[in-house]
Amino acid sequence: MIVASTVKLNAKVTLVDRTGTRVPAGSLEQAVAMIAGWAHQSTPVLGLARQHETDPSFVPGRWALAEGQLGPAPGTDVPDYLLEYTEWHLDDQAGYLYPVTPTSLDTIGQAVATRAGHEITITSDLPGVRTHRYAPATDTTADSDVAAVLAHDAATVVPSWVPQLDQYVLGTMVSDRPVSTAQAFATRTQTRRQALGPARTGWRGALNNAVGLSIAPGSGEQHTRHLHATIQKGLAGHRSAVVVNIKGGASKTTATYLLGATLGRVRGGMVLAWDNNENSGNLADRALPAAHSHTALDLLERIADFTTPKHADRLAGYVRPQGDNKFHVLASQNEAGNTEVIDAEAFRTMHAALRQFYGLALVDTGNASTAPTWQAAIDVADVLVVAIANKEDAARRAFTTIDALRNQGYGDKLDNAVALITQPRTASPQRLKDITDTLEGLVRAIAVIPFDRALDDGGQIIWESLSNSTRQAYLQATAHVIEGM
Questions:
Q1: Which of 116, 214, 246, 330 could be 274's S-S partner, Cβ–Cβ 3.0 to 4.6 Å?
Q2: Sign of CA pseudo-dihedral 284, 285, 291, 293
């Protein structure tokens, strides 16, 4: 019998600063990365949101953020940020997620312990969240209680284990029905421990490397590994993400390049970043140069050569390899003007050919939602990425873009979209809150990218010059994109 003795309680994290501005951060690790990327005169102190401090499920406290790690802080310190938790879910040992509510947690924990026949511990890495332990009860009515609670609390997202607790306990088989020997071997506890492996980063990784220890990774490194695993998921065939905002200077090109670099470094395989500006784009200006100056226009003239993979070796004469970033750039035509050089039909022809060579394509778009080549790119998109700079004009145009997409019948693609909000040097927290609040319900996921001086001059993007918080933010953003594919 395979049983689960410990499960993790997790939640979506929102930061609330001293002005009351709420900034969605997603995970605790993302919240820590965001705070670390902001300027502070002293060590930032975090506390619980007021509604949590009075809840018996929490232990009030103060936590200081130093060198990317949270540690205890004097209880008298006034927090710089409050942690607000929503969208609770349980993570089991097999990696499954189950939406819960705090009010149903005790019922669920007790029922699971009773069904498993041993103690169940529900723990969390979130600061201030109590550990819950449940011993088996003799009252077997707990099974029906938990099914009723979940049917009410998770009516819109029903986990696969409801109400079949007799077959699964948090995604782990506990029945006496035989399982195959191959399944038993593949899912054994030893394999899961090996999947975590010793820490490779931070002070834990330094000790492991210096002394030969095997200290387990901390929550931050575990989250990073989870994002890597998400980005590395297998996809059934070619997938395309299209980056949009009809405002120039909204960080579309930067987002396209860094999503490509993250995919190349983490996922590998054939990844293409394609500048599909209807006139002349600048993706090539941000990329590493090539031994040629060919653009999409040159490729279009010879696209008949690439209707089959037969001439794959010749493709190197039209795209630009990006070194250790391990992806390719296809530059836009370098002819500026008001006349489209590559139209919708040409785009579709090129896309049909290139998808034979690349498993993933990231398409950078121009600034005209009425341009046929812009609409052709939207048509092939599996995921839309709405690029938004935290500036008044860029934000307004981003929502104009969203309206245009919905009016053109792309509402279903917007529902699966990812919004990337890039912070400028002097960012307005209130406008960031306004942007994220307005985006709620319009897109599937939101990622906030911190300001990075290495990207500020508009020149060539050098991965090694980026801050750790920028890389982590793009790791989260890329995982959001893959999740939509």
A1: 330
A2: positive
- Phi/psi at 328 (5° precision): -115, 150
CA–CA separation, 338 and 279 (whole Å): 7
Q: Give tens-digit pLDDT for 214-269.
A: 677 777 777 888 898 889 888 878 999 999 987 777 788 999 999 999 999 999 88
* CA angle, 7 then 11 then 17, to 5°: 145
Selected from 1.25.40.10, 1.10.260.40, 3.40.50.300, 3.10.105.10, the CATH number assigned to the domain covering 235-483 reads 3.40.50.300
Looking at the DSSP bridge assignments, the partners of residue 472 are none
- Count of alpha carbons within 13 Å of 360, Cβ hemisphere only? 29
Half-sphere exposure for 332 (CA within 13 Å, toward CB): 25
Collapsing DSSP to helix, strand or coil, 83 comes out as strand
pLDDT tens digits, one per residue of 330-387: 998 765 544 456 788 888 999 999 988 899 999 998 877 778 888 889 999 999 999 9
Question: Is 479:378 a contact under the CB 8 Å cutoff?
Answer: no
Tell me the domain boundaries of the chain. Answer: 1-187, 194-229, 235-483
Give the burial class of 368: count Cβ atoms within 10 A of its Cβ; 0-12 exposed, 13-18 middle, 19 or more buried: middle
Residue given tokens 């410990």 in the structure block? 6
Can you tell me the distance from the alpha carbon of 237 to that of 429, in angstroms, rounded to the nearest whole number?
Answer: 40
Instruction: Write the CA distances from 118 to 3, 111, 189, integer angstroms.
Output: 9, 11, 17
Query: Contact, 9 vs 85, CB < 8 A?
Result: no
The CB-side HSE value for 322 (13 A sphere, CA atoms) comes to 31
Q: How many CA atoms lie within 13 A of 131 on its CB side?
A: 8
| Cβ atoms 406, 421 nearer than 8 A | no
Alpha-carbon distance of 310 to 331, in angstroms, equals 23
- Residue 163 preceded by cis peptide, ω within 30: yes
Measured between alpha carbons, how far is 343 from 101 in angstroms, rounded to an integer? Answer: 51
